[in-house]
Amino acid sequence: MKIGIDLDGVVFDSETTFRVYEEIFAIEDLKKREIINAEEPKYQTRYNWTLGEQNIFNKKYLLQASKESGLMAGFLPVYQRLINMGNELIVITARGMFFDEMKDDAIRLLNENNIKFDKYYWNIQNKLEICQKENIDVMIDDDYKIIKQISNAKIKTLYFRDANLKRLNENEFVHEVNNWGDVYRYFCNLD
Hints:
Blueprint: E1 2-5, H1 14-29, H2 43-46, H3 51-68, H4 75-84, E2 88-92, H5 100-112, E3 119-121, H6 127-134, E4 138-141, H7 144-152, E5 156-160, E6 174-177, H8 180-188
Parallel strand pairs: 1-2, 1-4, 2-3, 4-5, 5-6
Helix pairs in contact: 1-3, 4-8
């Protein structure tokens, strides 16, 4: 089976770390305490920041937050089990879009943990296109908009949903998971 895997918020705990720095930036730098939509995964729609404020945040905190991020709890044992089950694991990520160093940092973290994927797609804006090109059987991502787009194309998805993010109705092509144990259970139940 071909499994597409996003990195941020799925393999790396970076989305949680990013949100910490988003709050620090909003409160300390911008003196703004409101969140426009807490269900949104990305700060571009979570807050009412101008493009200039977004750029300041990126320069000041994005790379730092990336470097402080680690692996999601439980990823390593499930990663190894998915490989042992004969699956092909393909990274499909937007990482590297803002800074090349974020891609380099991801490679560092993967190498430090001896994690190797079958293929890597970096700086991807259209994950559906790659899923179709690679004939992905299941895509794991934490962004509900990406999950909707891919599942609407009749590709199975695992929505790696953080606690406060938007819920999606589950169906044949959308299944919610909250940790790597849930991911493992999903693949074990396919037999």
